[in-house]
Write a structure and sequence with these properties.
single chain; about 475 residues; alpha/beta; Rossmann fold; 6-stranded parallel beta sheet; 4-stranded mixed beta sheet; 22 helices; 12 strands; globular
């Protein structure tokens, strides 16, 4: 039996709220089912898929085991190509660097392509507090912004929990210039957004982007995407600011080739990414005149020091583990965000956040328990991260941390009391007799619908059968 989750569990509270929204649940469940079918079809037609997964794991492990060398090589290559490298220990520091660069350019508006790493550092709110407007190149991010939502339902498909009718209402009501007679066809919705944002995109002088990978040997940054919004950031602005997690470095182009074969099939069930943009430093006649690369740690080096947990750093942000997770499918990204998960939700968020932020807080400590441990996430991961194994490892860390508290938590007191009672036959039988009498007082029609106190966790989602008047243990003794 796994230990009880720490109380209060912010994930559990947020999950209950998400479960109450049946419309969103239906939208998300339908979308996840479609993603599962597409991914299964795409991987089935690749005869060497399992071999490719093993190669992807080897590529990512090789990069992580020599990460210090790879980062130094990357910094030198970017600098030689005319770029400027900045190092950020935390998300707040990375956001401050971006804001300082925007202010140094004398601008009050930037264009911003969707990327999990930008959500990780809280860039949207940081820009807003600094008085800098962000023009979104992604329709999903724009929908979230118009709806006033801080966190995406899915870190690659931010507004997947909303249907076309909802998006239509948001655009008509909150995006200036959108006609009321606009239809709900996806192409019409996209055209309406394009018409309203094109002028701002074309006049922007600074762009902020989150590349997916960096090739250390050449200093090349890489962005695979589905809508081409990131490519706008690479062509129009004069200054390009790139934020990259230090874990997303690959040593060579041959290594990148492996990852780019895995990513589209795992992420969206596609044979290849519709757009793959690459850029190396600055060029005199093409693209931005200035390029800044912000290398973000934000807990990654601490994760690298954990022999079990470090495997999560292999993640290529494909989100393949989300559609197969029964917990995520029913709760969406908001529940993970409420527990401190930020942009990364689903199984990978449940192993990433507790390692980068620690398990001292009740919210972060609840995330490793946001799983049934069915193992589906590990089965589909294209770089073979043993997510269930890491979750169990983190649960152990949570329990160990709570054991060291000066005042033990209530559930630990309960478990210690039960251990004391069950370690002696007479104490156990005395507890059993009293427990049976007490439980039968709570029973109605042979079922216990609600237990008091901490025991109530057992009856939150199901009834407990009432115990028999004469337990088997005592009947056996009398025979």
């Amino acid at each position: 039996m796994s230990p009880l989750p720490p109380a209060p569990s912010k994930f559990a509270v947020a999950a209950r709220q998400a479960l109450a929204d049946t419309g969103r649940r239906h939208n998300l469940s339908r979308a996840m089912a479609a993603l599962r079918r597409r991914r299964a079809a795409a991987t089935a037609e690749a005869p060497d898929w399992e071999r490719l997964r093993r190669a992807g794991r080897a590529v990512r492990d090789r990069a992580l085991l020599s990460l210090d060398t790879q980062l130094e090589t990357l910094e030198q290559a970017v600098t030689d190509a005319g770029g400027t490298v900045h190092w950020a220990a935390t998300g707040a520091e990375a956001a401050r660097i971006v804001i300082d660069l925007v202010r140094a350019g004398g601008q009050t508006e930037v264009i911003k392509a969707p990327a999990p790493v930008l959500g990780e550092i809280g860039l949207e709110r940081a820009l807003e507090r600094a008085g800098i407007a962000a023009v979104h190149t992604g329709l999903g991010e724009l929908v979230l912004h118009l709806a006033g939502e801080d966190h995406p339902a899915h870190f690659l498909l931010p507004a997947i929990h909303r249907d076309r009718a909802e998006i239509h209402r948001l655009l008509v009501r909150r995006l200036p210039g959108v006609p009321e007679e606009l239809g709900t066809d996806p192409a019409e919705l996209a055209d309406a957004v394009r018409a309203q944002t094109r002028e701002r995109l074309l006049s922007a002088r600074i762009a902020v982007i989150g590349p997916a990978f960096a090739v250390a040997e050449t200093g090349t940054l890489v962005l695979p995407e589905g809508d081409g919004g990131g490519r706008v950031c690479l062509t129009v602005p004069e200054t390009l600011i790139c934020v990259l997690g230090i874990d997303q470095v690959v040593p060579s182009w041959r290594d990148l080739e492996v990852v780019l074969q895995l990513l589209p099939r795992a992420a969206a069930g596609e044979r290849m990414s519709p757009y793959v943009s690459t850029w190396t430093g600055v060029s005199e006649h093409d693209g931005p005149a200035r390029m800044h690369l912000v290398l973000l740690d934000n807990g990654r080096t601490a994760m690298l020091a954990d022999r079990v947990g470090r495997s999560a750093l292999r993640c290529i942000r494909c989100a393949a583990c989300l559609p197969v997770c029964p917990v995520y499918e029913r709760t969406g990204g908001a529940a993970y965000a409420a527990a401190g998960g930020g942009e990364l939700s689903g199984p990978i968020g449940a192993v990433w956040t507790p390692q980068t932020r620690g398990v001292d807080g009740a919210a972060e400590a609840s995330l490793p328990f946001a799983s049934t441990l069915c193992g589906a996430c590990g089965d589909v991961c294209p770089v073979e991260i043993d997510i269930p194994g890491v979750l169990v490892h983190l649960r152990g860390k949570v329990v160990q941390a709570r054991r060291s508290l000066p005042v033990p938590p209530p559930e630990m007191v309960l478990m210690r009391t039960l251990a004391w009672a069950m370690s002696d036959r007479r104490r156990y039988e005395s507890t059993l007799r009293r427990g049976v009498r007490w439980a039968r007082l709570l029973a109605r029609d042979g079922r216990i619908q609600r237990l008091p106190g901490l025991l109530g966790k057992w009856t939150e989602a199901r009834d407990l059968p009432a115990p028999p008047r004469d337990p088997f243990r005592f009947r056996w003794r009398r025979r």
